[in-house]
């Protein structure tokens, strides 16, 4: 395990020649392949895959190599893995997060583009009912929000709390995102299951700029 964690390819080759089980894992389910993925060591990842490691294997928290690469902003490893035959783009970890969701959380538009252009599902939701679009919107990443809308995401999508992207933007006081969502056609009059609209959320949050903007619509 240490050799993979530390990036020593020659040691790994030696251990494999002596009968090391590549799929042997520690108490948390980490294999040499997953440790190399966590550390972004593309050379070791390539070698272990050539020797038969399962590209879709995961640790006990459901973290796959692709999820780890995206979570750690390793664009080169993400690019390599999405092109690997048999890769599962949308596997989730124990929190229901896939690689695209982590890229959105990290505001990494380059990785978002790689995953979307290779077929990652925009509509998959995590355990809180948020898809990648809602994750980006709830944090306030306008470039990713705009990109996902351009690629067919439902701008009126809601999470398990029945909050849409505009409501999150109003709660966070993100006027730039509020204007973007309005311009892109979001239903700004929609009430959630608690009877709240984006306007009431902005008003309750004492955000005068957003409140004034929405009242004028």
| CATH class categorisation of the largest domain | Mainly Alpha
In this structure, how is the largest beta sheet organized?
Answer: none
Which architecture of the largest domain per CATH? Alpha Horseshoe
Structural class: mainly alpha
What are the key terms here?
217 residues; mainly alpha; Serine Threonine Protein Phosphatase 5, Tetratricopeptide repeat; 2 domains; 14 helices; 50% helix; disordered N terminus
Q: Could you write a compact summary of the structure shown?
A:
With 217 residues, the protein is an all-alpha fold. It has two domains: 1-121, Ankyrin repeat-containing domain (Serine Threonine Protein Phosphatase 5, Tetratricopeptide repeat); 126-217, Alpha Horseshoe (Serine Threonine Protein Phosphatase 5, Tetratricopeptide repeat), CATH 1.25.40. The chain has 14 helices and no strands.
What report would you give on this structure?
With 217 residues, the chain is mostly helical. It has 2 domains: 1-121, Alpha Horseshoe (Serine Threonine Protein Phosphatase 5, Tetratricopeptide repeat), CATH 1.25.40; 126-217, Ankyrin repeat-containing domain (Serine Threonine Protein Phosphatase 5, Tetratricopeptide repeat, Alpha Horseshoe). The protein contains 14 helices and no strands. The chain has helices at 2-6, 9-17, 32-38, 42-50, 65-71, 75-82, 99-105, 109-117, 132-139, 142-150, 165-171, 175-183, 198-204, 208-215. The longest helix has 9 residues, at 9-17. It is elongated. The N and C termini lie far apart (60 Å).
């Amino acid at each position: 395990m240490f050799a993979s964690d530390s990036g020593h390819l020659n040691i790994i080759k030696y251990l494999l020649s002596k009968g090391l089980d590549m799929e042997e894992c520690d108490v948390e389910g980490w294999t040499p392949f997953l440790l190399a993925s966590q550390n972004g060591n593309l050379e070791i990842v390539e070698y272990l895959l050539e020797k038969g490691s399962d590209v879709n294997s995961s640790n006990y928290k459901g973290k796959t190599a692709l999820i780890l690469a995206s979570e750690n902003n390793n664009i080169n490893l993400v690019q390599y893995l999405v092109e690997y035959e048999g890769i599962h783009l949308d596997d989730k970890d124990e929190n229901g997060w896939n690689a695209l969701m982590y890229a959105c959380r990290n505001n990494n538009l380059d990785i978002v583009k790689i995953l979307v252009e290779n077929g990652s599902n925009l509509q998959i939701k995590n355990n809180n009912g948020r898809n990648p679009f809602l994750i980006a919107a709830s944090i306030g990443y306008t470039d990713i929000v705009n990109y996902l809308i351009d690629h067919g995401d439902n701008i009126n999508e809601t999470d398990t709390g029945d909050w849409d992207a505009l409501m999150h933007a109003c709660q966070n006081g993100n006027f730039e995102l509020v204007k973007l969502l309005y311009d892109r056609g979001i239903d700004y009059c929609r009430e959630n299951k608690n009877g709240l609209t984006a306007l009431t959320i902005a008003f309750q949050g004492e955000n005068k700029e957003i409140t004034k903007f929405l009242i004028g619509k």
